[in-house]
């Protein structure tokens, strides 16, 4: 296509910086090029648009290479007083027209997006003024009758309507969780109390989710101030109860915008004073501040921002003067569009509701999962060790793991044990998976036996892939009776699902199996039915991303190709999402297999680009993508055929993917699902409804499905669900990895 007919897109980052902005910019540039557009980076936000010149630069495919892992924004951001003036916006229009740009991707907060909309509405008038002043000619104005804009929200606060997550919020949560973990260990050593202030002037997202992930004991957020006047006493009482039951550390998390129900700010220092005076505890304050904006983007911020940047370009290409500008976001795991200015208005409505102290409305506007998370945290911090002489008939519930270790298993087990105990029931921990149930390796658990588990990787109860059969089922039945077990919570992977399904289908032979049981998806492979995400997969993805970042850094001297093997068994989730998050050129999935023809084509491609100066190539292969064409084989093949053009190194990431402390997301999901499982088991056991089920998230909502339905939801010969939502993202991965053919010239 001749250059003058191409659509010309400008991309800018504006307002506060956020980790993941680079991934979005990269995706906009590469998708734009793939679609035959010209993409210009506008440096330093709106300031760059007003100044023009060298601050507006045409981007090539390689200009956005090697930025995915960087925090902040490489094209710079700024606040611009000039853009708030009409004259500033007139200059901005002139500078855009100098390059023929009439489409913009604006990545920023509500201020930046509001500014973009004002600019769009004024565009025809601004152009008329420019013509009248003789700064542009009539045909130029006619060629650009309207300005198309799309908005992507870059904000660590996660304070925006129209998207479940904003760019940077997950990374900020990583920084907060790392800080809370570090503080917990020092607090526990000295039996100290810490008050930690996190960012969020109008939004308690970071405080609330940070508190859940960090296992904090109290939280204060702007949208939901304490309901009672003497909230200080309630807080002190909760912390005292925790201490009395043996806890060595106390953590209070407070959002910077926290206030009481009369709108009076609650500062971290005020809380410290209260705790020191009333509890006589040595209390320290830590204000996390800009640490939360820093550091490398998390895996989620890399893949999510890639997807929304990609979608933004397609939205812009289809822009018309009639179509309202859109905000691209993510809802319930899917990339979505929503009218930009409605989202801005709703975002303002939350701040407005808080300022007039209409907290009910503020919470309602935040959406249902925010409210649910708040209730979950409240249940957790309020739950206490058992009081003697309770009124409920105590039931006995077993907690068991099965399958490979998945970070977050301990988090889920801790929540379950504490909630069962809180409600007057007893909990039995089965050690070493289903083998433990066969051998009667079962211990009583109490409130304190799960102390510190919220943040720990691994599986303290032990786990393995044992699936009971034959005579072992008799032994299990005997132990269920001997220990008088009224319900089972299995937190684990596909082996656990199959084991539970087996017990469930043998009920007609073993009456002891006729008790409620539920499976909670915990597997790094993300290969379980009924849940779009399983606990552990996000942590594993972050481990892969960190490892690949390091591996890539070793390729400084020579031309190199890395073949990285990731786990996942029969499921390509880690390989594909790992590929999206690290910028791999090629991913090999077990769903697609590998053929000799594929390898030949990929090799030709690689040779072609290395000959033209490429320095680094990264391919990611799932461990079971093909039994014959192993990682070693592929590395040898590429090395041999690469013919000294490049070196090949293989890296089999192995078990580091199953280790590590769970990511914030995995801790939060583990907590939410575990709360639901406990509710389910108690309800079914009390009412004598002996259902067998598995729980999961679909479209952001919790669903519970009967074990009966499990076989039809699985691929017959493979340990993976028939439906895998993420397979639809392969096109984006494809669009990011190779320049279009015309760039081959
Ligand atoms: P954020 O985008 O993170 O909310 P700001 O509110 O500071 O950050 O906005 C960033 C920039 O966007 C401002 O410095 C200004 O240039 C521009 N901007 C914000 N609001 C408007 C507006 N109402 N009209 C024009 N430009 C605006």
Radius of gyration: 28 Å
Distance between the termini: 14 Å
Low-confidence segments, given as residue ranges, are none
Number of domains: 4
* DSSP E strands, number: 22
Shape: globular
Structural class: alpha/beta
What is the number of helices?
24
Major β-sheet annotation: 7 strands, mixed
The percent of residues in helical segments reads 40-55%
| Ligands, ions, cofactors | adenosine-5'-diphosphate
The CATH architecture classification of the largest domain is 3-Layer(aba) Sandwich
The CATH class name of the largest domain reads Alpha Beta
Strand order of the largest sheet: 3-2-1-4-5-10-11
CATH-defined fold name of the largest domain = Rossmann fold
The proportion of residues in beta strands is 15-25%
The pLDDT mean sits at 94
Describe the secondary-structure layout.
Layout: E1 8-13, H1 21-34, E2 38-42, H2 45-51, E3 56-58, H3 86-97, E4 103-108, H4 110-132, H5 138-143, E5 148-153, H6 169-190, E6 193-198, H7 205-214, E7 218-220, H8 231-244, E8 250-255, H9 268-279, E9 283-287, H10 299-317, E10 326-331, E11 334-339, H11 340-355, H12 359-366, H13 368-382, E12 396-402, H14 409-422, E13 426-430, H15 433-439, E14 442-445, H16 471-482, E15 487-492, H17 494-505, E16 517-521, H18 537-553, E17 560-566, H19 573-582, E18 586-588, H20 596-611, E19 616-622, H21 631-642, E20 647-652, H22 664-686, E21 692-698, E22 701-706, H23 710-713, H24 730-737
Parallel strand pairs: 1-2, 1-4, 4-5, 5-10, 6-8, 6-9, 7-8, 12-13, 12-15, 15-16, 16-21, 17-19, 17-20, 18-19
Antiparallel strand pairs: 2-3, 10-11, 13-14, 21-22
Helix pairs in contact: 1-10, 2-3, 3-4, 4-11, 6-7, 7-13, 7-22, 10-19, 11-12, 12-13, 14-22, 15-16, 18-19, 20-21
The structure holds adenosine-5'-diphosphate (ADP).
């Amino acid at each position: 296509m001749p250059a003058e007919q191409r659509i010309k897109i400008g991309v800018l980052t504006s307002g506060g910086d956020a980790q993941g902005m680079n991934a979005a910019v990269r995706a906009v540039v590469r998708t734009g090029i793939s679609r035959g557009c010209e993409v210009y980076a506008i440096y330093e936000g709106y300031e760059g648009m007003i100044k023009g010149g060298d601050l507006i630069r045409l981007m090539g495919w390689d200009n956005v290479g090697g930025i995915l892992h960087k925090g902040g924004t490489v094209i710079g951001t700024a606040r611009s007083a000039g853009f708030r003036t009409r004259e500033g916006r007139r200059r901005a229009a002139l500078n855009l027209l100098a390059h023929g740009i009439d489409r913009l991707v604006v990545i920023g907060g509500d201020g930046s997006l509001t500014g973009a909309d004002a600019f769009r509405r004024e565009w025809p008038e601004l152009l008329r003024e420019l013509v009248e002043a003789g700064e542009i000619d009539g045909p130029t104005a006619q060629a650009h009758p309207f300005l198309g804009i799309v908005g992507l929200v870059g904000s660590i606060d996660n304070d925006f309507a129209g998207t479940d997550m904003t760019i940077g919020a997950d990374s900020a949560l990583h920084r907060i969780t790392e800080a809370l973990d570090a503080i917990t260990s020092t607090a526990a050593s000295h039996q100290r109390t810490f008050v930690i202030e996190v960012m969020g002037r109008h939004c308690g997202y970071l405080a609330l989710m940070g508190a859940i992930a960090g296992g904090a004991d109290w939280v204060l957020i702007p949208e939901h101030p304490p309901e009672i006047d003497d909230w200080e006493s309630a807080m002190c009482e909760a912390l005292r109860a925790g201490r009395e039951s043996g806890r060595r550390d106390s953590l209070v998390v407070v959002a910077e915008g926290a206030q009481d129900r009369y709108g009076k700010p609650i500062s971290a220092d005020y809380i410290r004073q209260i705790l020191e005076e009333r509890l006589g505890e040595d209390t320290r304050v830590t204000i996390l501040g800009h640490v939360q904006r820093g550091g490398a983007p998390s895996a989620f911020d890399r893949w999510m921002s890639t997807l929304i940047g990609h979608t933004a370009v397609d939205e812009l290409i289809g822009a018309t003067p009639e179509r309202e500008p859109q905000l691209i976001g993510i809802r319930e795991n899917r990339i979505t569009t929503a009218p930009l200015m409605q989202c801005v208005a709703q975002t303002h409505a939350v701040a407005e509701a808080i300022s007039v102290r209409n907290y009910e409305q503020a919470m309602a506007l935040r959406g249902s999962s925010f409210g649910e998370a708040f209730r979950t945290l409240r249940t957790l911090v309020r739950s206490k060790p058992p009081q003697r002489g309770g009124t409920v008939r105590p039931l006995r519930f077993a907690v068991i793991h099965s399958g490979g270790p998945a970070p977050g298993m301990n988090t889920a087990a801790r929540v379950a044990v504490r909630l069962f105990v809180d409600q007057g029931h007893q909990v039995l921990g089965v050690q070493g998976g289903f083998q433990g149930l066969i051998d009667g390796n079962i211990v009583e658990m109490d409130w304190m036996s799960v102390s510190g588990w919220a943040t720990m990787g691994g599986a303290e109860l032990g786990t393995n892939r044992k699936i009971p059969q034959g005579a072992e089922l008799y032994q299990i039945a005997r132990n269920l009776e001997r220990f008088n077990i009224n319900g089972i919570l299995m937190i684990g992977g596909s082996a656990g699902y199959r084991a539970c399904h087996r017990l469930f289908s043998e009920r007609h032979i073993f009456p002891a199996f006729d008790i409620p049981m539920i499976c909670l998806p915990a597997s790094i492979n993300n290969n379980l039915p009924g849940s779009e995400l399983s606990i552990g997969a996000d942590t594993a993805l972050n481990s892969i991303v960190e490892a690949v970042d390091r591996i890539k850094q070793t390729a400084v001297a020579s031309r190199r190709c890395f073949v990285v093997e990731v786990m996942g068994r029969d499921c390509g989730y880690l390989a594909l999402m790992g590929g999206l998050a690290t910028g791999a050129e090629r991913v090999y999935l077990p769903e697609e297999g590998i053929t000799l023809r594929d390898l030949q084509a990929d090799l030709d491609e690689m040779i072609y680009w290395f000959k033209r100066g490429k320095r680094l190539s990264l391919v990611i292969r799932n461990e079971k993508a093909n039994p014959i064409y192993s990682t070693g084989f592929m590395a040898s093949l590429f090395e041999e055929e690469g013919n000294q053009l490049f070196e090949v190194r293989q890296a089999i990431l192995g078990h580091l993917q199953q280790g590590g402390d769970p990511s914030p997301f995995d801790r939060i999901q583990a907590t939410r699902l575990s709360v639901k499982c406990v509710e389910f088991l108690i309800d079914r056991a009390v009412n004598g409804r002996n259902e067998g089920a598995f729980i999961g998230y679909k479209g952001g909502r919790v669903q519970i499905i009967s074990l009966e339905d499990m076989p039809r939801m699985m691929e017959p010969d493979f340990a993976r669900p028939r439906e895998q939502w993420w397979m639809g993202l392969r096109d984006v991965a494809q669009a990011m990895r190779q320049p279009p053919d015309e760039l081959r010239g």
